[in-house]
Structure formats: structure tokens, C-alpha cells
Automatic annotation (TrEMBL), chains A, B:
Residues 5-65 form the HTH tetR-type domain. Keywords: DNA-binding. This is TetR/AcrR family transcriptional regulator. Residues 28-47 bind DNA.
Amino acid sequence: MEKELDTETRIKEAAKRVFLKYGYEGTKIRQIAQEADVNVALVNYYFRSKEQLFKSIYMESFRAFFGKMILLLNEETPFEVKIWKIVDRYTDLIMENPLMPLFVLSENREEGSLLFKEMHVKEVIHTAYFTKQLKEEIAKGNIREVAPLHVIFSIMGNVVFPFLARPIISYIGDMDEEGFRKFMEERKKIVPEMLMAYLKVR
Amino acid sequence: MEKELDTETRIKEAAKRVFLKYGYEGTKIRQIAQEADVNVALVNYYFRSKEQLFKSIYMESFRAFFGKMILLLNEETPFEVKIWKIVDRYTDLIMENPLMPLFVLSENREEGSLLFKEMHVKEVIHTAYFTKQLKEEIAKGNIREVAPLHVIFSIMGNVVFPFLARPIISYIGDMDEEGFRKFMEERKKIVPEMLMAYLKVR
DNA sequence: AAGTGTTTTAAACATTTGTTTAAATATTAA
DNA sequence: TTAATATTTAAACAAATGTTTAAAACACTT
């Protein structure tokens, strides 16, 4: 089952791979062209400039990624189940896009990124059902008093960090791809247990 | 109290700042020269090439950073106290070098980094007193059975990730520098409590 | 003061890299 | 088929960037 892609999408797919892996500065147009098996000039023919190509890809990829994250955050599932589900699904999501986290963080070294503002990340987080749910659980006395941002970044830290440090982990733990996958599967159990153990203590 | 630095160290300090902030590809020699208030040619006069300058800085900075981390890992303090201490001191250490984590991870996108091998990171981790201690506590039945790597990367994830995502956190949480500092100070309490809550459950 | 070696400078150089051009080729429409 | 249009190519271009050069400025010794 061969995929016959037209030139424009071939370039876009190639650009995605290369940008994701090497970042904006590290990516050369000739590298994209080679990866897409296409003449260099065609990159500019279809996408005016490197920057424009980058922006369209960056926004599209991140939008898709972030969209999936938000969807889950707003799902109306009981609190504890949701913690488990979030960890499980975020792990899978990043497993499918393992380069996304470092890419996003690398391209957001400076404060005040336009992308996040354009996507209303702040508002989305603050009005997310998960945030509301967390506050309710605290009010009901079911879980310990804690700022939502700490919970969110504890989840993210525990799930995302291993992917960021993946070459290091693989090296220290002598893991191949399968080994790393197992490591992350283990975390799917450890991380929610850790979070709940903390949150439930009064 | 003015510091009168000679040209070589001025260049080196400038290079440290610029490399740390923009990474290898993102850093231009002319930018370093300007930052050091020095003629472009002097950079190559003192350090043969961009790559060589980078390497010397990269190794030196990371060595110092990693050295401090290891020291703490090998300190002979009771287990629970140590967890608290590690979180506390790592937070402070990174607060002093907030760009180091993203820098190290960005420059280690590929597997098999020489730097880590040269510094015997693997061996150091595996033979660290902390690792031994963890196994002993498990054997004594004081804490839950868990692979040391999970504990280490849970600590790192919880401590380091917020720094990696700092521009994002600051934006979402409307924090200035002081706000972020407070956020991290709060984590100094939350993270060890979370870890211990998990580890102590049997 | 002259001589010696070091440091600094402006300029040039060579390479890389993003972009454009103009001609060649393929595709589509009349 | 023919003419118009779109796509592709090799080549050139211009700007950015790492590096080198050769001379000037400086510091130090004798």
C-alpha cells in the first residue's frame, strides 16, 4: 500500500520531521528538500519562505496536539478516574509524538509566545472542567488543598519529562525503544498512584 | 566593586550566556563578540573555533552542575530527610542556572551523547549512595517496591519540568519572576510530600 | 629608545544558507 | 493539436556567518 503524495504535502511532511527533530535554527531548507526528494527551489515555490513554512507547521502540529489534551481535560469523568485517564492518554499521545515536547519548549524559550496567546491556552486551562472539578473536590474535603497549577504541572512533569530526557534515560537504564516503552507503561501506574497518595492525605 | 576581567574570560562568560540561552545553532559568533564587547576575530584568536568554544563551555558548565548534583546524591543522610534535601537543593541549584536544563536536553536530542559517557553518568547513578539506600529501604520494607530510575525521574520531572516550561507557566499563572520563585518554593514542600506519600504506602 | 612578543583591529575570505530567476518540462483547457 | 498555465530544474544571487589575514596598537624587556 504505497502512498502517492503530491509535492506540496511531501515537502510539508518532510519539514515536519526535520523541524521537529532539529528545531528552527537547526533545520536547513536543503535538508527538507532532500528529505522530501525535491528540488530546493520548490520549498520556496510552495511556501514563500522558511519562516512561513515553519509557522504553518508549528501551529498546525501544536494545535492538533494541544486540542487532544484539552478534550481530555474537559471530559466529565469522576476525579480519580480522570487522573488515571489523563496520565494514560497523555503518555500515549506523546509516545506518538515523542519529539513534540522538546520542540515546543525549545521554540518557547522567551516569555510571551504568540502561539499560546493565539490559542488562548491560559483561558482554556483556567476554565477547564478539570480545574473546576479539582476545586470542588477540595471544597468537599475529598482531597488536600492545593493550587491547580501544581497538580497540572506535577502530572506534566512526571509524564513529559522522561520524553524530554529520553536519550539520557535510555543511556542510563540501558534501554532500547521497547525498554523505554515499558518504562513509560510502568509510569502509567506509578504517577497516578503518587498523585492520589498525595492528594488524598489530609 | 567593579570586576575587571581579561578578554579571554569576558568572551567565555559572554559565550556561556549566549549559548545557554540560544543553543549551539542559535548562537552566532558576532553575538558573542558583541556581548563581550570585543572584536569578532578575538573569539577565534582565543578559542580556535565556535565548536571548540562551545565544547569547552558545555563541558565545564555541565560538569560543575552535575558535580553538585552527584555530591548530594551521595550524602549520607537518612532516606526521608534526603528526599526533602534533594528537592530543596536541586530547586535552588536550577534556580541559579535556570537555562541549564533546556540547554542540556536540547543539545542531547540524539542518543549516545559523548558528554554523558565521558562523565560516567551511568555508573555514577547506579553506584550512588542514594540508589543503594533506596534498595535498602525497600528490602527493610520501609517503602514500596519501585525501580530507582522511577524515583529519580519523578524527582527530576517534578523539579526540572517547571523550569523547562517556565515561560508557559509564567504566562498561564500570570507570574513575574517573584511569582515563579514562590511557585517553586511551594513545590519544595509539595514534591517531597508527594513522593513520600507514594513510597510509604504498602 | 629599540626590539620583541602579544593583543587588537578592520578588512577580506570562504562557506553555508535562504531566496530568486529564467529556462525546461509537464499539465490542463480550448 | 495548440496555447495557456502550472510545475520543476539548474543556476545564480545575496545575505549571513565562521574564519583568516595583515597591519596597527600595546606591553614589556633590555
